[in-house]
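Supplementary Methods S3. Input chains for the assembly prediction are listed below.
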Amino acid sequence: MRRLSLSSRLALLFAGCTAVVSLFAGVLFGRASEVHFVELDQQLMESRLAVLRSTLQGADTLESFTLRLPALLQDLAHQPELAVRVRGPDGHLWFDSSPRLPLALETRPGLGSLQINGTDYRVLVPQNDNANAPHLTLLLDITHHQHFLQRMQRLIWMTVGLSALATAILGAWAARSGLRPLRRMSAIAASVSADSLNARLPQKQMPAELADLATAFNAMLGRLDDSFQRLSAFSADIAHELRTPLSNLLTHTQVTLTRPRGIEEYREALHSNLEELQWMAQLVNDMLYLAKADHGLLTPRREPLELGHEVEALLEFYAMLAEDSQIELSREGSAQIAGDRSMLRRALSNLLDNALRYTPAGGVIRVLVGWSVNGVSISIENSGPGIPTELLPRLFDRFYRADPARREGSSEHAGLGLAITQSIIRAHGGQIRCESQAGITRFVIDLPNNT
Amino acid sequence: MKLLIVEDQVKTGQYLRQGLSEAGFTTELAADGITGQHLALTGDYSLLILDVMLPGRDGWQILQAVRSAGLSMPVLFLTARDAVDDRVHGLELGADDYLVKPFAFSELLARVRSLLRRGSNTPQETSLQLADLRLDLIRRRAERNGQRIDLTAKEFSLLELLLRRQGEVLPKSLIASQVWDMNFDSDTNVIEVAIRRLRLKIDDNHEQKLIHTVRGMGYVLEERSS
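Predicted structure tokens for the full assembly:
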């Protein structure tokens, strides 16, 4: 079953609260006015009682009562809604100002109320101090009070109903307008597709409660946008990178086959094709490696490694190349780590290869290995012209080359080396960054200590 | 030396067969898993080259059948799937080596030869020789035409590798792996530099060159009648 919408729920909640509050207030007010009316009636009846008593002073017998009857009637004429019954000390009914009422009435002393033929009465049976005095019963018609109370009760119910309805409507409106930022958010989320990842929520206009959500949402869009941009650039780059060697292969093979040639020419053509093909195979293998890393399939083994020893082996590997280019290689420090030997060697070799490529003759490449706060740090620095700061963030992008004119279809590397290095370092749970100033470029790898 | 190739892709299979035959091996080719398994169990081969993805029975199943039949010939896997799991799976089942497509034929040939050599117990040589080049493995000395040649440790290892596998084209990746223990694809020209330096010491002052470059494939040490 579909849950009620948030604004309906809020509206119902508002309406319920208002109904309860106004009902409570209404009931309280009704009770208070009822009590107030009882007090008024009592005061009125007690004041009449005092007048009647003084009129009937000394009327102990029916005869003496009959003598005072005209005065009594005169008293009663002032108060048409008041009825009086007088009984003698023996209990006989001497007088009844409203004979319509039934004889059997409440005779318990005190104030009471009763309903006779649809009319409400307040009854006062006073305590008799003098046993010989006649017994009085006072009946006050309180229909008008009751009418007032009923009207008020209706009013209360109406108020309750109307205010609940009004708050429901107002609440629904308030909730809807309060939730407008959410709807805007969902509209933007609904409109996001691969083509429009640049949509963002207006963070400034968001209410405080939604600001965090909006920030997180925007950050998510940012990450998606970034990954998507890189991915589409990657696909475009793959196509571009493969196009050059492919068109070379096609052209060269077709040209070779257009007419009969000597065996040496065929051999030459095949050799040239082989070079292109090897370059393409290397590219495909590198891309497979990166794809594997992207899918989290790059699972490094965890063998205990002495990093100083590993770096030394790599420096030995590159020693002759460095000597040829008159570059000095050196290493300082060591540290232990659990990692994948061949993967880490590959990662570091890409960095060394890179450093050798960009260090001018007579320069130095230094590898520093050591413990850092969180684990192990390896930094590879080389002398040289340095990399402009604005290019540093793009350095690890696939197919990125600092100098776009550097390679086009030659057998030189395709610009995946640093991306692969980064993937390997990340698979080990580490980070790599590059810092460059005039005269020095430094790649810093931080690996977590997990030995 | 009789080899069996089980490969369902017709072109790949034929090229492999041609290449290995021309390298001096007797080669048979099966194009599906069922034929492949039947041949592998009955044919008395020195080495099996199995594709992983095959119709009928896959490479793993053939390997299992071969091993449970008590056959211990080396098995080399070829696969287009480059997943670590595959490698682990294969090695657990008893595969001896592994190549991921696309691979270079020279690489395959070198691996096949390594695997075949692993089986045969060659006696420990104390020296290696080709023409007038001689390597004394005990005293770690090299000489050509009676003249001593000074080699660094790595140059010595490189020359030893070339001599041990004389006549074979050794791809750069194999040299990097055997001499420097660098087991990754690298497009660096370290090997070229190393070979150039070795040539300088071995071949430069001699009429007969021993180290040859096979373009696009690697390097070979052999006597060539020029």
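Chain B is about 40% helix and 20% strand. Helices of chain B lie at 10-22, 33-42, 59-68, 84-93, 105-119, 153-164, 172-180, 190-202.
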